[in-house]
Amino acid sequence: MPRFYFDVHDGELQRDEEGLECANVEAARERVLASLPDVAELITSSDGDNQTVTVTVRNEEGSKIYAGTLTFTGSRPDEAA
To answer: Residue limits of the DUF6894 domain (predicted)?
Structure first.
């Protein structure tokens, strides 16, 4: 079974050196989607109201094959746009 690597970038790159075995690219994509609740925990109030966290999937050759981004944008209604 092929191994895929799931790098997380939340302002700093956290490179996955172990990877996970997945049946195919679609299974790796599903892992990214399933990880979104964990990825959301990386967003903290101390980091401000505009944040993104991206999970990039690499294959065994190191090629990027998929990326999923979770974006948080907060605003207060009383602030001027």
So the answer is: 3-70
Using the CB atoms, write b or e for 9-34: b if 16+ within 10 Å. Answer: bbeeeeeeeebeebeeeeebbebbee
Instruction: Output the CA angle 35-63-41, nearest 5 degrees.
Output: 20
What's the length of the chain? Answer: 81
